[in-house]
């Protein structure tokens, strides 16, 4: 068999493997997202000071919606800086090992949704469907703001040696990260607050 033919077959085989990986993983990731009620947020204020927090969320066809108060640090931070890192994390009691809990992390751009917009109604309805009338009551309070988190790039970790990068507008392109979790970061519009130092 010629080297050229082997290369061709290898390319097709890799493509088929990637397709099978995508078909197997995407439903699992969607199920994982549906099973979580809250997401963890890493926000920063305009001076770059970080804050870790969490918020209940609802997933719609155009992103993740959260309703947060301006009285909370993350509520202020999201208005000052749209750059946010998000994590959905398997519960400790469900994990086979606390060292390898399943998790989905992604960089996102937080978009403040105007109260008088269709997007506001859509986001509140999605949250209300998950969490009930408390959302409707909170949405009426002037200090609560609705944000849509638009994912840019992500990472799904199933366990030891099982990290998969997610790219594309809806995080639907899957690649196995054989170099672990710390490979070269994907290009994005984000820059570190200390990048200029």
TrEMBL record:
Chain ranges of the Pyridoxamine 5'-phosphate oxidase N-terminal domain: 26-157
Keyword set, alphabetical order: Oxidoreductase
Region (Disordered): 1-20
Polar residues: compositionally biased ranges: 1-16
Record flagged with keyword Oxidoreductase: yes
Gene3D superfamilies: Electron Transport, Fmn-binding Protein, Chain A (2.30.110.10)
SUPFAM superfamilies: FMN-binding split barrel
PANTHER family: HEME OXYGENASE HI_0854-RELATED
Protein name: Heme utilization protein HutZ
